[in-house]
Amino acid sequence: MADNVDLIAGDASPPAPNGARAAPILEMVRVSKTFGGVQALREVDFDLAEGEVHGLVGENGAGKSTMMKIIAGVYHGFEGEMRVAGQPVQLRSPADALAAGIGMVHQELSIVPDLSVAENVFLGVQPLMAGGVVDWGRMKREAKRQLASLGLDIDPSARMGSLPVGIQQLIELSRVLFSGARIIILDEPTSALSPPEVARLFEALRRLRAQGRTIVFISHFLDDVLEISDRITVFRNGRKVITEETAALTKDSVIAHMIGRGTAEMHMGESTELSGDDNRLVVLSARSLSDGSMIQDISIDLRRGEITGVYGFMGCGQVELARALFGKGRLTEGEIRLDGRPVSFRSTASARRSGIAYVPENRRMMLFRTEPVYKNVSIAILDKIDRLFLRPGRERDITQRHIKDLQIRPPLPGIALGSLSGGNQQKVALAKWLTELPKVLILSEPTRGMDVGAKEDVIRIVKSLRDRGVAVLVLSTEPETILTLADRVTVLKRGVVAREFAHGHLDKGDLLAAA
Amino acid sequence: MSVTTETARPFTFGRFMAEQMRNIAPVFTLIVLVIFFSTQAESFRTFDNLMNILSQASITGIIAVGLTFVILTAEIDLSVAAVANAIGILVAYFTVQPDYVNIANMPVQGWIAIILTLAACFSIGLVTAFGVTAIGIPSFIMTLAMMQIANGISAMLVRGQIAYNYPEIITTLGSGTIFGIKWTIVVCLAFMLVAHVVLTYTRFGRYVYMVGGNREAAEYSGVNVKMIIAAVMIICAMCSGIAGMLGVAYFGSAQQNQFDTFLLDAIAAVVVGGTSLFGGRGGIGNTIIGLLVLGVLNNGLDHIQIDSFLKILIRGLILLAALVINVYAQKLRESARE
């Protein structure tokens, strides 16, 4: 383990000029990885050249993150071989990977907002003076120098949390660089950045490339990938589809590779005929919603008897939009009208009483695992069925009815919720709102992580609610979910409405291109 | 202990024990203590002593009832004893005192004194509730501040003096008897009965458990979580205040610092009884067992030959053991549910 460490750190060969690729700095040979019977990667060959920016694209679950986590030492135990600078290596942890010169900046930054910039750059490796005292002077000087090499002029004593996300990300990047990484993996680095911040990041990446460092750029934002990358690799369903020079690719050809258009892999949920009808009654109308950070100037109408889909990548503001409509999370600007009257919810309870129902993306956020199913169902309707005293018999009857309608298994209202499967838990989360039909039903990722049978049940339930007159809002990062459910679609990109589709044919490629 | 992995989840002894650990352990402790002290001291196993234990536990019991609500929502109230003290002194402040008591008081009629005092008590609860929910101060710190404030009120009102007179009804309920039973026991039982009914059979009670069980889920189910937490903080202040009023009559005097031991006793009773510190589990039944365990322990140690200084240490060790069981029971239950 220790002996593969010095391979790169020892002699850094001079940066190869762009384009002329000698022996690859990293090679992955016939790599396969399974998680509990699910094949995440199938015999993938992948390589990185020294001094290149390598774009990595593919849909959620295509295998790109799995591959990068293997390379970064997060996952170990895979089939196949990994070679760094021609030598086989075995990584057991991210620390091993770092020692071998491979660092990763995750989408969720691992910064400490209350510490200074310098302390964040040196997190865990503060320079010490004799006696174990932290050498603050040296730390600040080094941090300053380090940041300057990325083109940043920042006071190293500034508090990390006071800086914009784009800067925080570059500081985290500089920490990875400082620890000696020559291969740097960036996971969705541009998802939270404004256009000028993206430009600054690209400037920094170009500097690193000129120093001979290798960068892997994982992103859903194809425009960004096409702009910065020298080569692009596309993953689909655990396989590598293609690795190609960026110059030979266009956005459309990348999307075609990602979704396998024109191949036998096309199946349901790849396209839909939208049926938005502008004559339907608008139940909820939101105008110019902003929360000061994640969403800006979003306007959306939810119509009676229609499912409105909101598509976008992780971090596009979907979560914040849904929360804002349910009375959680603060809005700095904008107006929400329900049945034509302006409303302002100060709590989720007032949103619920006004007829808005919400199922968040994470089941744990709305279910009580140790409580019986019937208490989970009745919690949202207690004030409708009881005055002062509870009527458990009534709660059980209502729950029994939902169990029958939604085919929840096992059909026992008294069983602890935690002993149900994930799909059945999701049905309980829906059942909660079905006793008295809400005016507006907001669903975040309604089918994520469910098996096919449960998925179809949920789709059927949601469509039947729409047909009974509920205005449904479905938010998802999975194009299939949107294409299966939605009658009209709004695409969000970095907190703003990027495109709206109301009529006609819509397929996955259109969604990916718009986001 | 065989725990099968079938979806039908058959009933097994091991699973039952794991889930009921928090209820079984305190009852078992109580039985062991009663048997131990009964065999060790003849004076312990008498009817008079039983009444003695109950009346000693009754004032703590009223405070513990309020605390049970708070702890069920996974909050804490450290101001209970200080509030009891301040309210006890306040009711005396509104009552005519003997000539030799040198307090600048404001005597009013008995009923008015009680209403004013209850209003003051409600206000204290309201301030705590406002701090915890509207401002967002953690209840641990907010109630620590309220503890100091209540102590300050006590000090300002009595200025080192001692008051002896209270409205008649307070004197009766605090120190009188009915059919040979102390009124405080009856009042305490009444509080427990009402609290049990509220927690078990009302909508509000369900909300209390759900907020404690998973606050986020309660909020996403459209429960007004802040309102529920504000309500339990006010309920707790009211229980503490009433306990304080009866307490000063029970002691026969109202002065500073006389409730100091009640904070630890009340919290210990709730926790020893098995109500989860993480909220959502437990109830008045648990609190009753916890009160009896502490009551029997305090009383029993007086009946056997034991170093009186050692008693303090023993109480601490018992509390620590209860905390270990409380946290362990939570983990056991969670793993049994997996």
From TrEMBL, chain B:
GO terms for molecular function: transmembrane transporter activity. Pfam families: BPD_transp_2 (PF02653). InterPro entries: ABC_transp_permease. Its main location: membrane. It is found in: Cell membrane. Keywords: Cell inner membrane, Cell membrane, Membrane, Transmembrane, Transmembrane helix, Transport. The chain crosses the membrane at residues 20-38, 50-72, 78-96, 108-131, 137-158, 179-201, 228-251, 263-296, 308-329. It is a multi-pass membrane protein. Coiled coil: none annotated. One of its GO terms (cellular component) is plasma membrane. This is ABC transporter permease.
